[in-house]
Design a protein that fits this description.
Layout lengths: L1 E4 L6 E6 L5 H14 L6 E7 L7 H14 L3 E8 L3 H12 L4 E5 L4 H9 L1
Parallel strand pairs: 2-3, 3-4, 4-5
Antiparallel strand pairs: 1-2
Length: 119
């Protein structure tokens, strides 16, 4: 499930991920991005990730479609998660998104994540 949350940066979209991500979730996120950042306007992402161990193939496929569609418009991504595996995933994503700054933060570093994203 993806839930849009309040962004502390007007140039960023803030999302919370928990459990399975479905096609409807991604469509809602895309609609929000297109409304808030029309055309080719660049934006940042604040991703607050909870338990994602039940990810589905459909969810991963929708995520890849999102990546392909938006990676050239994304400037920065702050990922907040307590799961250590996300640090490696973030590192790997950075290799496929040239020019995008991506950084992982622990839950207790949420405010630091926002500060980094706003710079």
């Amino acid at each position: 499930m993806i839930k849009l949350i309040q962004s502390e940066d007007p140039a960023a979209v803030a999302v919370e991920f928990e459990g399975k991500t479905m096609k409807d979730d991604m469509e809602e996120l895309e609609a929000h991005i297109e409304e808030k950042f029309p055309g080719e306007e660049k934006f940042k992402i604040f991703a607050f990730i909870h338990d994602m161990k039940n990810a589905t193939f459909q969810g991963m496929t929708e995520g890849m479609k999102f990546d392909t569609k938006y990676w050239k418009r994304i400037r920065k991504v702050a990922v907040v998660s307590e799961q250590k595996k996300w640090k490696q995933v973030i590192s790997d994503i950075g290799n496929y998104w040239p020019g995008v700054k991506i950084k992982h933060f622990e839950y207790e570093e949420k405010e630091a994540a926002w500060e980094w994203l706003k710079r």
